[in-house]
Amino acid sequence: MAIGIGLIGLGTVGRGVAEILLDPKGRHPLVAELELRQVAVRSLERSLPQGLNKELLCTDAAAVVANPAVDLVVEVMGGLEPARSLILAAIAAGKAVVTANKAVIARHGAEIAAAAAKKGVYVLMEAAVGGGIPILEPLKQSLGANRIERVSGIINGTTNYILSRMALEGASYPEVLADAQALGYAEADPAADVEGGDAADKIAIIAGLAYGGLVDRAAIPTEGINQLQIRDINYARELGFVVKLLAVAERHSSDSDGTEVLDVRVHPTLVPLDHPLAGVNGVNNAILVEADPVGRVMFYGPGAGSGPTASAVVADILNIAAIQQVAGAKAGLDPLLAAGSWRSCRLVDSTITQHRNYVRFQTADKPGVIGHIGSCFGAEGVSLQSIVQFESKNAGAEIVVITHVVQESNFQRALGMILLRPEVEAITCCLRTL
Questions:
Q1: How many CA atoms does the CB half-sphere of 266 hold within 13 Å?
Q2: Disulfide-capable partner of 356 in 50, 58, 130, 433 (CB 3.0 to 4.6 Å)?
């Protein structure tokens, strides 16, 4: 029996989904059982994928949700509203939902998950993170026997493209951003990408699945690449690192009531050249999972685009369709596929987290400055991996320090002490280091 699909949105991703559903030849046989019944679009005059009957189009997304011929709703319109309301309406109507909408899931995931569990329907979202890279289903199923210690990833293709070009060519941030916009890798307003918001949405979703509890998206410390200078990328290379925008979620500790305490963050990071993430360039994404007992597992591939993202959407549809065909629409939810929250999580106080750091000082070129910096770090128990003086293009000197692992509060106190000396004019850059 065919499964009726209602598609909300016919943009880049929606078009890719429609093309797969309309051309099942050579794909899994179950794809042929997926029948596109109605498609919501902004304009009825838009160009259509080959084989899509114009009579299936409408401009009322709510009508797609309410259509009795639609068994499963695919939301790929993006944005918070009306996407959130449409997803909830589909759930209330007893219909499964597949979405690529990371913003809605990151901010309203708790509400949507509760509604889906109460109604007994699936809401799947593989395409919301990493485009064509399968990561959410592996976290829910393939890696379900593991304790996830850390997930770190390059999960925004726009910023990775920009940083790769800056590192390889020595080009400036504004120059590469303009090229990325011309090529369609960056939006006209690139803020969500370059300021880290897109990556923060995605790591919130990943953390919720990896650790079994919802994460407060608004509380995730987020820093983008828009303030990054080419000199720090160059200095990093000289010291054996490459700079990447990383999204990280890792286990920090547990409270006495069993609440999992997590360190979740997004920021530019110095990555050693021999690290698995260091060689991920261009618009590609990669997600490294470190877990017990599996060890390290990395997922790599295209993180966006019509084909990769549509592939993930249709994979979710197939997961739901397979269960409905075997067990029927009224079967109970598969606990691994549905993957509801099973414990509470909270974010750690950032002052007690421990990390390595890169810091660049602008100083006067006078004797004793390096000694002063080293003494201040030493007084706070901050061990240094390296301290190097570079010639400054302006008057004075630039001193770059890379620390060993240190508690954030100690590191910040040391920086405060260093700035008390007048020869230390400013901290011009401070980045995390793997």
A1: 28
A2: 433
